[in-house]
Amino acid sequence: MTYHLAIGDRGYSSWSLRGWLLFDAFGIPVQTKTARLYTDELPKLLAAEFAPAKTAPALRIDNGPVVMESLAIAEELASRHPEAGHWPSDPTARAVARSVTAEMHAGFTALRSHCPMNLRVSYTDCAPPEGVLSDLERLQKVWAWARQASGAQGPWLCGGYSIADVFFAPVATRIATYNLPVGAEAQAYVAAHLAHPSFRKWRAMGLVDGADQEYYRRDYPTRPWPGPKPLVAKAVEGTEAMNAACPYSGKPVNHVLEMNGQRWGFCNAFCRDKTVADPEAWPAFMAMIGQV
């Protein structure tokens, strides 16, 4: 069985992030098809391979049915892969997780509108209006209730990382991007998202998979991204490298980065550039250079 997932720009498409996390964070392989937002690429892709879907993410299973909307994708994967742990196994925690996921899927419209997801920048302030502040108050209440009602002890809402956390991941990034005013417990939850291995991979790809989208540009003062600080690496010219094959594809080296005075090669510019963006996000690269 092969899963095919249509997504938009990784740096900006919050629903695409949810769709992809439902696979990567739970160890389920998926083949992605990416189309740029605000162009005719996405409508053409969906019409050609994911009809009748109109938005990303959209899932096609083998050559069979198309599953539309991230919540439907979540439920389908949870049914097909019960061992993956998409929902908590405990009935109480599962009921809580489903409740908060449904509210996230349908609510928080002021926050979404004023603070669209943008993983390429972080601002010092965005002057949140009353509607956004109200959403943030509700958000913190829901998060605190979920942890209390489910008996969660770790960083996630209902015990282990679940669909509930997947659905709140883009909201956590909005708090990080726009420096939104939330309390210490909510900030800790945001920090857990920014450090999650799958999220770090997604953001690294989102930093380099196309030009900035003008729709998301804001004139607020900026600050460094508040997540884990990446190791320093840079793209360099040439093909001379310590390795002969790309650590991801096994194909011959055509593009190279430099880190700690050593040159490492990749099969294409995207493989190299996503690694430059956050080397530690990529276990295969870290294993190759002997830092795992």
Automatic annotation (TrEMBL):
Entry GO MF terms: glutathione transferase activity; maleylacetoacetate isomerase activity
CDD domains in UniProt: GST_C_3 (cd03194)
Residue intervals of the GST N-terminal domain: 3-85
BP GO terms, sorted: glutathione metabolic process; L-phenylalanine catabolic process
Provenance organism: Neogemmobacter tilapiae
Name the record gives this protein: Glutathione S-transferase
PANTHER family, A to Z: MALEYLACETOACETATE ISOMERASE
A Pfam family reported for this protein in Swiss-Prot or TrEMBL: GST_N_2
InterPro entries, sorted: Glutathione-S-Trfase_C_sf, Glutathione_S-Trfase_N, Thioredoxin-like_sf
